[in-house]
């Protein structure tokens, strides 16, 4: 909410830590009958004192004028903003180091609105590969038939490879967006975000227009990778995953500077994918334990990834912490990430039959197609989240029949290792 007294992020010249800010920033108990926790504001609309206030609020929420009140436009209608949504947007902004944030009803709503706001027919999207299946389908099956072309690059740590793809993209039209998912889903490949910023500048010098650099930070952020500090213009999330963290809601977010986000924030109420107040309230609750949950899950995941890497049934583990010291991707990882994440993939010998048998043998780990929750989940990407791709396309991206994606939750790592050990044995992969 908009009380200046609850927007402190410094004490005595020292910036407060994120885990402290997640418990108080942006909410004034004095505006809610002294409640320590925000109530759920279940209302569709908000009263304003005068007709002139109504004019001002509509001008602000439509983007026709800048908001004068701290925290953004005043409350008008829950498709535009809501106290629960506003609290979460402000807390995510202070965590990510963004000027503004827009919450959405899903991660795909955030990505779709951002790409639609930035592109016109005849434009081109330059993007990393692999991408989450939904993002890939959006670019292929929605944007492309509407006249927005796309060019992908596979090696996101080679500036020359990205530049080569950029040249191919410029040959097709105006490059409006550079979109990257790093680490990628499901193989944890990395993209050099700073290099994307440099290449965006080169495209601007040649085409007279700087493309927006948009980074999907779902796997590591907002704690362990800061794309905006590295040169991205907008960062997007599936809030469903680590930020919400309990597998009980669906939401998304886009964050960035006010100028970069202006078109996104104008388009959101027109398309209507706003987040409901109850889900926003639940996210606010989750932010209070975000640091604890992500740190525990990431520590467990690295230990489990190293254990899997030693197993004879496993032919490869895709976790950034296991990158060889002399690999180019290792340098990018150490430069832009402070942890490797809790979602990674591993490949079992024996292909799809062995992968299916392993998955079916899990006793603690559940089969499901999400990630980042408090429980550990596993899926077979080739037949689920990346099944829209052809077999040739999947293999080119490293999504083989034997690949299993694993999201480590908050169970004790010893118990998860025991479950993996018996499942690998039951799977018969040798």
Itemize the secondary structure elements and their pairings.
Elements: E1 10-11, E2 14-15, H1 18-21, H2 51-61, H3 83-96, E3 100-104, H4 107-118, E4 123-128, H5 133-143, E5 149-153, H6 159-170, E6 174-181, H7 193-207, E7 212-216, H8 227-230, E8 234-238, E9 252-256, H9 258-271, H10 277-287, H11 290-309, E10 314-318, H12 328-336, E11 343-348, H13 351-361, E12 366-367, E13 377-379, H14 391-396, E14 403-407, H15 413-427
Parallel strand pairs: 4-5, 4-6, 6-7, 7-8, 12-13
Antiparallel strand pairs: 1-2, 3-9, 8-9, 10-11, 11-14, 13-14
Helix pairs in contact: 3-10, 4-5, 4-9, 6-7, 13-15
Main beta sheet: strand number and arrangement? 7 strands, mixed
Residue share in helix: 25-40%
Taken in chain order, the helices and strands follow as EEHHHEHEHEHEHEHEEHHHEHEHEEHEH
The N- and C-terminal alpha carbons lie at a distance of: 57 Å
Rounded mean pLDDT score:
92
Count of DSSP-assigned helices:
15
Radius of gyration: 22 Å
- SS content category: alpha/beta
Q: How many strands in all?
A: 14
Content of β-strand? 5-15%
Low-confidence sequence ranges: none
General shape: globular
Strand order, largest beta sheet: 3-9-8-7-6-4-5
């Amino acid at each position: 909410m908009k009380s200046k007294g609850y927007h402190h992020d410094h004490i005595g010249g020292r910036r407060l830590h994120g885990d402290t800010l997640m418990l108080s920033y942006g909410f004034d108990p004095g505006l809610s009958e002294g409640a320590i926790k925000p109530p759920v504001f279940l209302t569709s609309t908000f009263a304003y004192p005068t007709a002139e206030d109504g004019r001002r609020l509509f001008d602000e929420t439509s983007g026709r004028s800048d908001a004068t009140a701290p925290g953004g436009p005043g409350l008008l209608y829950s498709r535009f903003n809501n106290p629960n949504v506003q609290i979460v947007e402000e807390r995510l902004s202070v965590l990510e180091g963004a000027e503004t944030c827009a919450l959405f009803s899903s991660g795909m709503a955030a990505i779709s609105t951002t790409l639609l706001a930035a592109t016109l027919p005849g434009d081109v999207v330059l993007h990393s590969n692999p991408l989450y299946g939904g993002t890939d389908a959006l670019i292929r099956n929605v944007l492309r038939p509407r006249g927005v072309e796309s060019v992908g690059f596979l090696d996101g740590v080679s500036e020359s490879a990205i530049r080569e793809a950029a040249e191919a993209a410029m040959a097709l039209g105006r490059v409006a967006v550079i979109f990257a998912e790093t680490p990628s889903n499901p193989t944890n490949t990395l993209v050099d975000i700073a290099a994307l910023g440099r290449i965006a500048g080169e495209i601007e010098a040649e085409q007279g227009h700087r493309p927006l650099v948009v980074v999907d930070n779902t796997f590591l952020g907002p704690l362990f990778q800061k794309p905006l500090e590295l040169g991205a213009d907008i960062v997007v999330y599936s809030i469903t995953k680590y930020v919400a963290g309990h597998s009980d809601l669906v939401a998304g977010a886009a964050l960035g500077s006010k100028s970069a986000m202006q078109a996104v924030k104008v388009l959101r109420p027109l398309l209507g994918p706003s987040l409901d107040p109850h889900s926003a309230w639940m996210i606010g609750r989750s932010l209070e334990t975000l640091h604890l949950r992500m740190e525990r899950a990431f520590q467990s995941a690295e230990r489990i990834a190293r254990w899997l890497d030693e197993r004879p049934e496993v032919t490869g583990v895709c976790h950034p912490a296991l990158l060889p010291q002399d690999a180019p991707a290792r340098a990018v990882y150490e430069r832009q990430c402070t942890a490797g994440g809790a979602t990674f993939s591993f490949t079992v010998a024996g292909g799809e039959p062995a992968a299916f048998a392993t998955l079916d043998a899990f006793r603690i780990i559940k089969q499901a197609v999400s990630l980042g929750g408090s429980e550990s989940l596993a899926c077979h990407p080739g037949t689920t989240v990346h099944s829209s791709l052809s077999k040739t396309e999947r293999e080119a991206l490293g999504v083989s029949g034997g690949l299993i994606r694993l999201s480590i939750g908050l169970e004790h790592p010893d118990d998860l290792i025991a479950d993996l050990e018996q499942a690998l044995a039951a799977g018969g992969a040798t």
